[in-house]
Amino acid sequence: MHAKLAGNPEEPAMYVADHLSVDALQDLADREPDKRRFLRLRAIILALRGHTAPEIAEALGVSRRAVQHWVARYNTNAPDGLADRPKSGRPPLLTDLQIEQLRQRIDAGPQPEDGVCTLRGPEIRAIIAREFGVTYTQPAVYFLLHRLGYACLDPRPRHLKADPKAQEEFKKNRRPHR
């Protein structure tokens, strides 16, 4: 949590339906692998303990409105109401498994069949088409890379046979330019 909870006598406590006890919710939260759902469960637990929406929002680092929305969803649908809802828009072209395989492929670096020493957007686009049979536009590849936490370009590619110790030794022993 981001902040300690302090009671606020001016704001009333939130109404929370008694679907589950605090202990049962805590057990559910302790076993929850999804970070977003865990956060929502924590909000419900704090609300059941009598904390206000602004206090919970500050403690969890979210908006007051989000806390109110989560409590309303819990009141209507019990813990099932805290799951992510289906997103609108076009479904993703790659499955979660394929995304993980792509991430591993990128982390492994270029392979001989790639014909390059570093993977950039065009090469990753070709890999996606070749290995997953899915066509992405170049901007979509960059958007995907950004969403996965990668930089679009790596300005200093590293060769697989590069020796970091030898490179450091070279830097120490080279003569400066004049």
How would you explain this protein's 3D organization?
Among the domains are: 22-82, Arc Repressor Mutant, subunit A, CATH 1.10.10; 96-154, no CATH class. The protein has eight helices and no strands. The model has no long low-confidence stretch (mean pLDDT 85). It is mainly alpha-helical and 178 residues long. The longest helix is centred in the first third of the chain and has 14 residues, at 35-48.
Short description:
By secondary structure, the protein is mostly helical. It is 51% helix and 0% strand.
Secondary structure layout:
Layout: H1 22-31, H2 35-48, H3 53-60, H4 64-77, H5 96-108, H6 121-132, H7 138-147, H8 164-173
In quaternary terms, these chains amount to: single chain
CATH architecture group name of one domain: Orthogonal Bundle
Major sheet: size, sense and barrel closure? none
> Any idea what the radius of gyration is?
25 Å
* CATH fold type of one domain: Arc Repressor Mutant, subunit A
Shape: elongated
Q: Low-confidence segments, ≥5 residues, pLDDT <50?
A: none
The count of helical stretches stands at: 8
Class by alpha and beta content? mainly alpha
